[in-house]
Design brief:
313 residues; alpha/beta; 7-stranded mixed sheet; two-stranded antiparallel sheet; 26% helix
Length: 313
C-alpha cells in the first residue's frame, strides 16, 4: 500500500478543510521519508492500520516537522535515538514515544454521551511514568535483565544531552481536541512524573479547625491497583542524571497547518548535561533549581514558541 493510499483511507472525509490537510500531511510525511529522517520501516509504519503503530511513527514525523519549522537541523542515525541535533559543539539526542492509553478508562477516551466525567489523572500519569521509564531504560539499560543501553554501547556519549519527547495524543479526553498535558496539580504531567509534584492540598487543624494555605503535595510514588508503587521523582534521583529533559507534547495532524502544537520542556535539575533553555520549540519551560537535599525551586518561563503561538479561543 502506498503512503497516499494509506492516508486517504485513514482520512477519507472530503468536506471542509480535510482534503487540504490530508495533502499537506502527505507532503510532510513524504519529505520526512525522502530525507531519511526515519527508520527503514518508517513508511510501512505510517501505512499501518494499527492506530498505536501509526501514531508512534507519525509523532516522529510531526516533531521532526516542528524542529524544521523552528530552524533546528537534525539527522537520523541508523542506530540510536530518533533525532540528533548538533548545537554549538554539543550533541543533543531526542527519543520519541507516544504512550498508548492502556488502563485509561474508555469513558474518558470515547464516551457514550455528553455530561460531566471524571478526569482519570492517575491513570494518565501512570502512562507518562511508564513512557519515561521505557525510554530511560533505552538510554541507561536494565542491569536486572542484563540489557545494555545507549550509554553503555557508546551510541550516546557521556557528554551528550538526551531528551525524551512524549506525545500525549492518544491520552486525550472526550472532546478529542484539548491537549492532555496538565495533570491534577495544574502542572504538566511531565512535571508530576519527574519532580514529585502532587495535587494541591489544604491542611486543617483538628483543634482550631483553621486551614493552611493551599500547597502541592510531595508525591514521590504512585500506587497502582496491582504491582509495586511507581516512582514519580525521576529527576530527583541521581541515577537519571544522564536524562537532560522531557519534551512534553500533544501534537496532531493539525500541526502541519495552522493549529498550534501544545509543547512544554521540563528540565532535569540534576542533569549531567543540561539541555540549553529555549532550544526546543515549546510554549513554556519548567526549570527546577536545587535549593538543598530536600527542596528545589520550580520556575515556569516562556518558551521559544510562546511569542509566535496563536492560542485557540
Amino acid at each position: 500500500m502506498s503512503l497516499r493510499t494509506a492516508f486517504e483511507q485513514r482520512y477519507p472525509h472530503s468536506g471542509g478543510r480535510m482534503p487540504a490537510l490530508r495533502e499537506r500531511l502527505i507532503e510532510v510525511a513524504q519529505a520526512f521519508l525522502e530525507a531519511g529522517q526515519g527508520d527503514a520501516n518508517a513508511e510501512q509504519r505510517l501505512c499501518s492500520v494499527d492506530d498505536h503503530v501509526f501514531w508512534q511513527q507519525l509523532s516522529e514525523v510531526l516533531l521532526g516537522y516542528r524542529l524544521g519549522e523552528a530552524g533546528i537541523a537534525f539527522t537520523h542515525q541508523a542506530i540510536g535515538p530518533d533525532f540528533l541535533i548538533e548545537h554549538e559543539g554539543r550533541r543533543i539526542w531526542v527519543e520519541v514515544i507516544t504512550p498508548t492509553p492502556a488502563g485509561v478508562p474508555q469513558s474518558w477516551l470515547a464516551p457514550a454521551g455528553n455530561g460531566v466525567r471524571d478526569f482519570p489523572h492517575e491513570q494518565i500519569l501512570l502512562r507518562w511514568t511508564a513512557a519515561i521509564k521505557q525510554k530511560a531504560e533505552v538510554l541507561l539499560g536494565n542491569p536486572a535483565q542484563q540489557i545494555n543501553g545507549y550509554l553503555t554501547n557508546g551510541i550516546v556519549g557521556t557528554e551528550d544531552c538526551y531528551v525524551i519527547a512524549v506525545n500525549a495524543r492518544l491520552l486525550r479526553g472526550f472532546d478529542g481536541m484539548s491537549g492532555e498535558l496538565l495533570g491534577i496539580s495544574q502542572f504538566p504531567f511531565a512535571v508530576e512524573a519527574t519532580l514529585a509534584v502532587g495535587p494541591i492540598q489544604v491542611s486543617i487543624d483538628r483543634n482550631t479547625l483553621e486551614s493552611s494555605q493551599p500547597k502541592h503535595q510531595q508525591r514521590y510514588v504512585l500506587h497502582k491497583r496491582v504491582g509495586q508503587p511507581v516512582p514519580a521523582d525521576t529527576f530527583l534521583d541521581a541515577r537519571f542524571a544522564p536524562i537532560s529533559a522531557i519534551w512534553a507534547t500533544d501534537i496532531d495532524e493539525g500541526s502541519v497547518s495552522d493549529r498550534p502544537a501544545n509543547m512544554v520542556v521540563v528540565h532535569n535539575p540534576r542533569a549531567s548535561n543540561p539541555l540549553p533553555s529555549g532550544l526546543l520549540p515549546a510554549l513554556e519551560e519548567y526549570i527546577a533549581s536545587v535549593v538543598d537535599e530536600e527542596h528545589y525551586r520550580l520556575e515556569r518561563v516562556n518558551g521559544s514558541a510562546s511569542r509566535s503561538a496563536v492560542h485557540p479561543t
